[in-house]
What we know:
The chain has a domain at about 10-175: 2-enoyl-CoA Hydratase, Chain A, domain 1 (Alpha-Beta Complex), CATH 3.90.226.10. By secondary structure, it is α/β, with parallel strands linked by helices. Strands 1-2-3-5-7-9 form a 6-stranded mixed β-sheet, sandwiched between helices. It has a 3-stranded parallel β-sheet with strand order 4-6-8. The protein is about 45% helix and about 15% strand. The chain is built from 9 helices and 9 strands. The model has no long low-confidence stretch (mean pLDDT about 95). The N and C termini lie far apart (about 55 Å).
Amino acid sequence: MTDIEPFVRAIYHRGITTLTLDSPDNRNALSVRLVRELTDALTRCGKDGDVRAVVLTHTGNTFCAGADLRHPPHPRELVKLLRQILTLRKPVVARVTGHVRAGGLGLLGACDIAVASAEATFAFTEVRIGVAPAVISLPLLPRTDPRALARYYLTGEEFGPSEAARIGLLTAAGSDVDEVLEPVLDGLRRASPQGLKETKQLLTAKVLETFYEDAGRMSRLSARLFESDEADEGMTAFRERRDPQWVL
């Protein structure tokens, strides 16, 4: 027995397994442990013949704050997680009702469908701590508007759900996320397992090409940047809630 509470909780209902990120102390940041638990949970969903689709959601006001700066996974592990979402033989649907930052946006990019409430906010904050959105670009660059992505990558600006839907980061947004989600889940329950599997493979083929071509290069870039002096200053400033030295 163990008294350790899981960081990822799973609930099954009528063919849908909901995986809930539940690491409130670090705003569901991508720690070594959370990535491992999510990877394991997705593996179980892939093997379960009763699971038609997966919903990925969260507790608290943050879907995912990006990489855990204290206990970050190796970039290869993040690549593995994003590839697993894309290659899972069942659709994965993101349900967002809070903030999404940095690496958390990679999760949205890898999901087949992503819906959000009006309270959701989004920002690629990597540039502000001295790194770049390297690994998460693997699913994002093929699926989102390149001009908009250039702006938000380079500035780290926050934007809302309407803009996120416009640029292709979200499928849909609304004041009540579950109203938006309901017809999606109904459609998935009406679809055949074979139809879903084969159709998902059609949709993800081009995205997965970028993994085969660029995953190693992006992993090395991410590792190099996180080990740099500039990133050390950026992460220290973030923890100390001050501007880094380069801010003008």
